[in-house]
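On to our target:
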Amino acid sequence: MEWIQILNAAVEYMEVHLLENITVNDVADDVHISTYHFQRAFSMITGMSVGEYIRNRRLSLAGQALTQKGAKVLDTALEYGYETAESFSKAFERFHGIKPSQAKRTGATLKSFNRIIIKIAIEGGCIIQYRIEKKPAFNVVLYPEVFEASTCEVEIPDKWLAYNSRNKEEVVCPQMGVRIFDQSSNGMFTYGIGCHIDLTNHIPKGFKIYEIPEYTWVIFSCKGPMPDAIQNMWKRIYTEWLPQAQYSFIQEYDIELYTEGDIYSEEYETEIWIPVMEK
């Protein structure tokens, strides 16, 4: 329930500050979780990004405002976060299917996008395979790069393609992808591709050694072709496992562990490791 409460608190914050210049970072800070984890959980549970939610709510309310007697398009644009009437008109027409000037006419058809309330929905008894393990600290060798939470879902797969196309002597085996979160980084995080230090006898240029601290980990097993299998498991973690779990995520690291084999096979196996603590 904790994550559902957090997300509903985030929705409340967005609604109260809807007409202000708020960012994803502002919302995440208000509910005291990292921007990355908040944005990921919100999009997986609601099916939309935070930006989409705020934009749709504003445009829905702007449509209602334009039906009021004496409403002006420019004033409404400025009130709902647009700097010009032109940018507002384009967004308004994409959302409502008509121009703002047409919305002012009696009988105009507008679209309504209401505030969301997030609840747990219990559906079929599908199995999620996981185990809880306490592991001592260990070292990994990673090629680190910094990403923004808002664009990482597109950029990271491209980095994997680039990594796998490099000469073998320039890299270490691509055993894992590790996210490293800095709570003060304002929506940025480090992501590294690499392996456990025991699997390599050299540190190529641009690679670094990181110590992963001792944690209790929840480890989820995935089977199926990449990238769909692991993406679907992440969604199930947030929508099925996490809302009812007796554990909270420690927002410092997470690891995706890959095995050798055909990544497009229905039998291909991967794991997701997330550090946790009991509630």
User: Anything to note?
Assistant: The beta strands are 130-135, 138-148, 176-181, 188-196, 208-212, 215-223, 247-249, 253-258, 269-278. The first strand starts at residue 130 and ends at 135.
